[in-house]
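Progress against Task 2.4 (sequence-to-structure conversion) is shown through the following example record, which the project officer requested during the mid-term review.
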Amino acid sequence: MIIAALWPAGPSGGECEADPEEAARAGRFIAAAGHSLLLAAAEGPARRAGEAYRAAGGGRLIGILPEGSPAPPADLFDELISGIPAEALLGRICAQAGAVLCAGGPDSSLLAACRASGALLYVVAALSGVTSPEESPPAGPGLPAGP
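Structure tokens generated for the chain above:
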């Protein structure tokens, strides 16, 4: 399966400030599971995930980059599709991926693109601000409470 890993821009629309180790962990986990990895950027957390994916023995690394993106390192992607208009990017990603891993809150355009293509959407968020059991999120049905 092709899994797209996305790190949305921050609240101000600027570059995502993802934890580099979390991005690398995503790349390693996807490689260990034997899936292909699709990235929509060649820098920041996406590049870190791609490098970790490659180092962990990941198979196929695909880049789908929007128009105006800087050229990626020659050895980063096995397959590169570039120059995609910004308004078509999410649709193209979701059409190619069987699942989308979104680190942070997805916006309505990502939800719509996944729905239209049938891609599964998984939203993950770090608990980096949690410092005590009292701050832990509540347990879901059938899950133990607290860390």
